[in-house]
Amino acid sequence: MLENITNKITGIFQGLSNKGAITEKDLDTTLREVRVALLEADVSLKVSKDLIKNIQEKALGQKVIENVQPGQQIIKIVSDELTEILGSQSSELNFKNKPSVFLMCGLQGAGKTTSIAKLAHYCQNTLNKTVSLVSTDLRRPAAIEQLRVLAQKNNIQFIEPSSEDVKDIVQTALNQSEKLLSDILIIDTSGRISTDEELLIELKTIYELAKPQENLLVLDSMMGQQALSVVEAFHQTAPLTGFILTRLDADPRGGVALSAKYQTGLPIRFFGSGENITDFEVFHPDRIASRILGMGDVVSLVEKAQKDFDNKEMENLQAQMMSGKFNMEGMLKQFLQMKKMGGMSGLMSYMPGVGKIKSMMENADFDEKIIDHQIAIIRSMTKQERSDPDILKASRKRRIASGSGRQVHEVNRLLKQFEQTKKMMKQAQKPGFANKIKNLLGGNQMPTIE
Predict the structure, then answer these.
(1) 3 Cβ contact partners less than 8 Å away, ≥ 6 residues apart
(2) 329-375 tens-digit pLDDT
(3) Which H/E stretch holds residue 231?
(4) Sign of CA dihedral 238, 244, 248, 250
(5) C-alpha closest to that of 336 among 301, 370, 375, 280
(6) By C-alpha distance, which of 331, 347, 320, 334 is closest to 419?
(7) What is the pLDDT of residues 100-138, one digit of tens each?
């Protein structure tokens, strides 16, 4: 997510750390490079110019704080300004009415229907709200069926359209959701193109009838600057209250995320971070700014871990590690939890120094499928073999390789990795281990300023 802009900006600031001092000329050169990186990431010209201007004004007027190196102060200013452009703080949903009505609109192919299911799942499982869904998309083949299936699959109430008239569908859904005592009614609208006058009129009709507390536009983050004209067309038809960005995980540039809030004044509420129903995150501007600057997003990682991990299971696993009783069963649980978190690449996207970590993984020719292969190998072991890998000799290794569909050398590689993991667990308990990891990920000191 946002790899291009993150890699370029972290590379630019890494250049500052290689200097013994930062002059005003160094600052000008650095900010010029930042501006180019922003424009290449599809950030609008206005946003790029204003961001650089604000950073320059604050950096030149900044007093040097004792014990804080000037390079670090500059990065702090950049982080603050990025956060301001992204929206300062996350925006809460409006739950004043019962049911609170959320209208969802967007272009064809933007991922609107899937985002509705993700939003409903989030509201039910994270916010503990009861949700009902209804579709008014009578144009796209199987659009209603798609939402129905997603609702049934995720235990979300689906209200069947009452007729072929969108007014009747909306009014019936409003009445029925009230009888069901739903906290939220989410209305799916037809996917449309901004120049389709007929469908825009239909959207306005639904908006005026439903009187929604939230009118959220689903935006494909890979649209680039075209997205801003789309926002304007929808906003004029039915006033929007915010955005949901889709495919941000697949967009290496991130220009829409940096431009949308600043140029429209509307907050980004959520973003899709994958294909699963749970790959849906609240948009925290400060955390996204931290990711762009290569400082990671450890808070979101912890929150994701708390949501996805079985606490009791993890406590038992941690106790095993600390006591030196870590075995193949524990390693299997680690792999399964990692898969649940989005695999190694999913985990690494939250970590500080992500660019350096990914580079190390690429240089090591790391393949995500290796984890699947290793899970298969461990599952081909007996209970005794998982508990005591030392008993694995040649004949057992051949049987395990055959049972998992892998090669014997892959079994040997897994066993070697297991021994290295055990060794690292012992080292992790020693003082200074955290500093070693920090140095590995490029924890350089920042330069001073003249």
Answers:
(1) 252, 355, 358
(2) 888 888 887 777 666 666 666 555 555 555 555 555 556 688 889 99
(3) helix 226-237
(4) negative
(5) 375
(6) 331
(7) 999 999 888 888 999 999 999 999 999 999 999 999 998
pTM: 0.69
Alpha-carbon gap, residue 8 to 165, rounded angstroms: 51
* Whole-number Cα distances in Å, 153 to 1, 118, 244, 257, 277: 28, 12, 22, 30, 10
* Separation of alpha carbons 134 and 180, rounded Å: 13
Block residue for tokens 């990431």: 41
Residue pair 149/174 in contact by the 8 Å Cβ criterion: no
Tokens of 86: 């992204």
What's the maximum distance between 2 C-alpha atoms anywhere in the chain? 73
| Domains detected in the chain | 3-86 (1.20.120.140), 100-283 (3.40.50.300), 301-444 (1.10.260.30)
> To which H or E segment does residue 364 belong?
none
Q: Which of 186, 120, 110, 180 shows the shortest CA–CA distance to 156? A: 120
List b or e across 376-393, with b for residues whose CB sees 16 or more CB atoms inside 10 angstroms.
ebbebbeeebbeebeebe
CA–CA distance, 96 with 443 (Å, rounded to integer): 47
